[in-house]
Structure formats: structure tokens, C-alpha cells
Amino acid sequence: MWGPAAYHIQQSAEKFLKAAITSRGNIPPKTHDLVHLVSLVSATCDKEVEEAANLTTVYAWLTRYPGAPPIGEHHIDDAVGRLKVIKSWALSMIEEK
Predict the structure, then answer these.
(1) Which of 2, 18, 34, 65 is most buried, by the most CB atoms less than 10 A from its CB?
(2) How far is CA 79 from the centre of its chain?
(3) How many CB atoms are located within 10 Å of the residue 74 CB?
(4) DSSP 2-40
(5) Cα(14)–Cα(78) distance, rounded to whole angstroms?
(6) Would you say 39 and 46 are in contact if contact means Cβ atoms under 8 Å apart?
(7) pTM score, two decimals?
(8) Do the beta carbons of residue 34 and residue 70 sit within 8 Å?
């Protein structure tokens, strides 16, 4: 039940990061790896942003394949918090440009 929500949280984070890459005049790669996307926006970032990207990336594939561990409401609460961190950072990178 919560799997689709987790997937869309990851997708939202991915879109914020790809917007930041695009704002710098670059074409974002076809990847779901949020840590890689963060590194393309800026060579440095807060540990919190890197950790949020790392923990959120897994939802790109975890929720789409059978046999994956179930996603619970508590996972969604945590993922929303991480999305807020990524969103805030990505928007600050766009404004900084």
C-alpha cells in the first residue's frame, strides 16, 4: 500500500535535483541515483543532503519488484522528511546560480 508513495517521493527528489542540474545549463543523465545527481549539482553538500539522497534512492527500485521488503507508514514519514531536505537544498542551488 505504501510502496507507490515511496516511489513517488524518490521521483520527486529526482526531479528537484534534475531541475538544479538543468538550471546550471547541463543536461541531467538518465539515472535514478540521487547521490550521483547531487554530485552533479555541486561538488560539496551537507552530510544531511548526501544521507537523504542515499537513503531515498532505494525507493526507485525497491517498490517496483516482487519480493522486496514491505514499505510501512513509518518509512513514508522518514522519506517525506528526506524529500524536504533534498528539495530545500536543490532550490537553494537553483537560486544560488
Answers:
(1) 34
(2) 9
(3) 9
(4) -HHHHHHHHHHHHHHHHHHHHHTT-PPPS---HHHHHHH
(5) 17
(6) no
(7) 0.94
(8) no
What's the rounded Cα separation, in Å, for the pair 56 and 37?
A: 12
What lies within 8 Å, CB to CB, of 21 at 6+ separation is: 27, 28, 37, 40, 41
Take residue 59 and report the three cell numbers written for it: 525507493
pLDDT at 18: 98
pLDDT digits (tens, 9 = 90+) for 17-64: 999 999 999 999 999 999 999 999 998 899 999 999 999 999 998 888
97 band by pLDDT with thresholds 50, 70 and 90: low
In the chain the first and final C-alpha atoms are separated, in Å, by: 39
Phi, then psi, of 65 in degrees rounded to 5: -125, 140
